[in-house]
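Deliverable D4.2, example record:
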Amino acid sequence: MPTDLYRSPVPEQLWERIRNEFHLPTLEQVRERFASVHEDPEPAMRQLVRVFIGEGTYCPGYQFRADLSLNPVVTGLHEQAMLLRIPHNYFALWMMVPSPALDGRRPVDLRNIQDPSPLQAALGRVRADLAA
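Output generated by the structure prediction step:
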């Protein structure tokens, strides 16, 4: 893994990988889904992980549970990333890349764990990489 991973442009293949493995709906598609199940979709919309590809805004499918509710581990990590000022697209990259801090596992594969503290610690290391 390149040491400057979080300083380089996000590879276009990442978006295809997310799309193929988890889906990558547009922000408008997610808004429509939320509006069909929530009287006020805005609180859920504010928690979304969003990525910016070209002129579009998309929502990686790994943040949704089977019932289309938001995964609390992912939303908590995303909130932490925003506090750490990690850009949205780099957060998406981090979720999909094997992490040495997680014994080579991808954060996305651990999104259903009960204790997210190892993920939180690994995310904090990304901020250190960005600051270095």
